[in-house]
Amino acid sequence: MQSEEQHTGGCSAGCSSGSSGGNTQQGCSCETHDEQRDGSVAAQTFGEEGPVKTLGHIGSKLVVLSGKGGVGKSTVAVNLAVGLARAGRRVGLLDVDVHGPSVPRLLGLTGTRPMIGEDAMYPVGWRNNLSVMSLGFFLPDPEQAVIWRGPVKMGLIRQFLTEVRWGDLDHLVVDCPPGTGDEPLSVLQLLGTDAQAVIVTTPQGVAVDDVRRSVGFCRELGNPILGIVENMGGYVCPKCGELTPLFPAGGGEALAAEQGVTFLGRIPLHPDLTSAGDAGRSLYEADAAHPIVRALAPIVERAAATLHASDIRHESTPGPQSEAAPGTGKTAATMPTAPTRNESCAPATNHPDTNGDTTMKIAIPVAGDVLCQHFGHCERFALIDVDPATGSVTGRNDVTPPPHEPGLLPVWLSEKGANLVIAGGMGARARALLEERGVKVLIGAPAAAPEAIVAAHMAGTLTLGANTCDH
């Protein structure tokens, strides 16, 4: 069991004070445990927490919550974050469900460990535009129970919000545990009243009753409600596509009308949704015509609209992911493409990887004459110049990197003028440092010739796999 006297990177609240491995609260000097010792828990009660400053700009904060457990809240949060990332937005996904962190499993990140620096934690990368942080990354035993009281949980949430180096984000999606207790209270108070709630329910009355309290909870705290999602709104037959109601239909939509909030959409049950979650992948890895992906489309579109166009910091320029789909009049958020394909668009006069420049330089770590799977230990880098208007390679210059030192390669590549780095594997800190300098990163590329990788990238056909060196 993970008790309050055990430690994750320091004290049980996640702090770094005290000696490693086994400090008790009595030997810990962190603020959270000071409050526990002197009994002044009132500082953590309703109305006392204030907004905190995060490491990096966050454009839109979306908190996914529900008054009822078992309604599929984490599934909604994960697919909302993936959908926004697929639409070209830079997204962070924070899992604050201390007692049941399921996001690592849903995204196939079980067993992954984030990088911890002296003064910051670095989120785990998933695909190109999505970074993830969860307590689940820090639990050494999947059967280990976390037994923490409110102040300790609030200390961890505060640490996640203030010490995770997300970089600049268009959207931060937070997956809260069910109810209106410590975790959602802390999240909304620490993020401030501009954080918007996405409330998840199922159609039956017993769930709607509890979710109704979530609406009142958000209003009492002064946080706007983006809308209500009705999950499990019927069963889709995988053979014929017929939708069969399993519960009295329309409970979520009726609640939205009763409370005067937006009804975001209805997500049906489908066997593929269960198998995808168990396999650690998103259904966005199927196709845009999948009934679950189509059901998610208006929810993602509404969430994407929470960020004003002038505030979008990483959105791609128009291409297959942002052009209106024929006959739909809808943007990329409603018509995602298959995520096993490269996120970049086809050649255009203003390719998204050029950051508005008229030239494009792609850096690829190589060993022999194929991509090296270890970014920091390659023989050399192939710096390939590309004409973004035609997608054609105009030149190649192989350069030997400086001796390997932490944090040096990202600065060096930025100074070499790289717009994009395509690698097989890369640590979280190196990726964060590159992105801080405006250099885009693609991870999980195959061991192939650099020119072939660039050609596939420019054509939008580059297949990306897992990060082979995520440390």
UniProtKB/TrEMBL annotation:
Highest rank taxon of the organism: Bacteria
Keywords: ATP-binding, Hydrolase, Iron, Iron-sulfur, Metal-binding, Nucleotide-binding
Comp. bias intervals (Low complexity): 8-30
GO biological process: iron-sulfur cluster assembly
UniProt GO molecular function: ATP binding; ATP hydrolysis activity; ATP-dependent FeS chaperone activity; iron-sulfur cluster binding; metal ion binding
GO CC list: cytosol
InterPro entries per UniProt: Di-Nase_FeMo-co_biosynth (IPR003731), DiNase_FeMo-co_biosyn_sf (IPR036105), Mrp/NBP35_ATP-bd (IPR019591), MTH1175_dom (IPR033913), P-loop_NTPase (IPR027417), YlxH/NBP35 (IPR033756)
Tagged with keyword Transferase: no
Disordered as annotated region, ranges: 1-32, 311-357
HAMAP family reported for this sequence: Mrp_NBP35
Entry function: Binds and transfers iron-sulfur (Fe-S) clusters to target apoproteins. Can hydrolyze ATP.
UniProt similarity note: Belongs to the Mrp/NBP35 ATP-binding proteins family.
NCBIfam families in alphabetical order: MrpORP
Protein name as annotated: Iron-sulfur cluster carrier protein
Organism of derivation: Nitratidesulfovibrio vulgaris (strain DP4)
